[in-house]
Amino acid sequence: MPLPQFIMFDLDGTLVDTAAEIAETVNRTLEEDHLPPLPATQIRDWIGKGTAWLFGNALQAVTGDQTIRESERFARLYPRFLHTYAELTGLLSLPYPDADEVLGALRQAGCRLAVVTNKERSLTLKLLQSQSLMHHFEIIVAGGDTAAGKPSPLPLQLALQRAGVDPAQALFVGDSSNDVQAARAAGVAVWTFNHGYNHGQPIVQAGPDAVIESFNELLTRLGLAQPEPLPL
User: Which of 13, 22, 42, 113 is the most buried (most CB within 10 A)?
Assistant: First the structure.
């Protein structure tokens, strides 16, 4: 595709691998209420729809209560989850390989960059700052900035509005079916990484315009880097 004027990125599972610290936060919060821990692999599959949805799933899994999100227990423990997560944010996470360098190369080529995530704003800013990625992004749309998060198109539409860019001149890069659905509804081309958290399902099943394996491949597909020669 021609080099987009505006490239929007999801955060968790796209720019930064946060699964370890999210799992640690969930299990520390459960332990505080004398509840059993959950496997990190199970928690990983819930990443992408915001922390309230994720923590509600965790409580439901350990209690068996289908209405746990409306309970006193959730109202009491969710703020504890957010407090613990704020303490751990950035400590157990890492940007995916070459993310910083490729974001810099995109900016140097004239692309305007944004983050569009369902993660709460304070956690989003802290994570980006902790990973030294904040300076790459002109626009950040986070959880709570719109009436609904992804898979609604509203977060992407808000980013496009703030940038003053037509959907046809933009690209969204994510890692989940939520990202694909949001981009489709917003009329934006969507590529997905294969290294993210698509609820335990192969991302190709979501039908993105392309599945990419690395940040260097992203750069190559955008015509900004030559593919490495195959070994002899």
Answer: 22
